[in-house]
Amino acid sequence: MAYLSEPHAWLFALMIFALRVVDMSLDTIRVLFVVRGKKLIVWVLGFFQSLVFVVAISSVLTQLNNILNVIGYATGFATGNLVGMLIEQRLAIGHILITIISSSRGSYIAEQLRSNGYAVTEIAGRGRDGTVFELHASVLRRDVPQVETIVLEADPQAFITAEDVRPVRRGFWRA
């Protein structure tokens, strides 16, 4: 355990930590692009991710006697997942299908969304307590908070769900 007092042991562990953060951040973003079918970006991210991974893992395996390297590797993995999620959140890439169910204000919500440039499909439905309005709006991920605000201002009781979608072709997409 004498190596714990050596600065180079800590620096090496810190380097492994940083490499692992980069590796896992790239991994998180790469998976996002895989789901969205972005082949070229996935290839480039995969190349750099694997390059960083090989350097990080070989650094740990060549000095397994240093527990700091193992800890740096593990904490870098965990931290990289979080950093990747934060980056993904900031990028807000892709489209979301928002489904809104309102028992009384569906047409008004649709009007409000359309006046703000969003495409909305209205469907009449039957819920537990009678007729409901079901609205579908496909929006950019970065627009979800704005759409949610518009909906809740129009009907605070509205039920809202969101799911990732991949546009295939045609239709109206707010640019």
Salient structural properties:
175 residues, alpha+beta, Alpha-Beta Plaits
The poorly predicted ranges are none
User: What percent of residues are in strands?
Assistant: 15-25%
User: What is the count of DSSP helices, taking H or I runs of 4+ residues?
Assistant: 5
**Major β-sheet strand ordering:** 2-3-1-4
Topology order in helix (H) and strand (E) letters = HHHEHEEHE
Helix content: 55-70%
Number of domains: 2
Query: By helix and strand content, what is the structural category?
Result: alpha+beta
Mind summarizing the main beta sheet? 4 strands, antiparallel
End-to-end separation in angstroms reads 59 Å
Radius of gyration equals 24 Å
Would you report the number of β strands?
4
Mean pLDDT: 89
General shape: elongated
What's the quick description here?
This protein is α+β, with helices and mostly antiparallel strands. The chain is 56% helix and 19% strand. Helix 1 (7-35) packs antiparallel against helix 2, helix 1 (7-35) runs parallel beside helix 3 and helix 4 packs across helix 5 (144-154).
Outline the structure in words.
By secondary structure, the chain is an alpha+beta fold. A hairpin with a 2-residue loop joins strand 2 (121-127) and strand 3 (130-140). It is 56% helix and 19% strand. It folds into two domains: 2-91, no CATH class; 95-165, Alpha-Beta Plaits (2-Layer Sandwich). The longest helix is centred in the N-terminal third of the chain and has 29 residues, at 7-35. The protein is built from five helices and four strands, in the order H-H-H-E-H-E-E-H-E. Helix 1 (7-35) packs antiparallel against helix 2, helix 1 runs parallel beside helix 3 (67-91) and helix 4 (106-115) packs across helix 5. The model has no long low-confidence stretch (mean pLDDT 89). The protein has helices spanning 7-35, 39-61, 67-91, 106-115, 144-154, and strands at 95-102, 121-127, 130-140, 159-165. The protein has a four-stranded antiparallel beta sheet with strand order 2-3-1-4, with helices on one face.
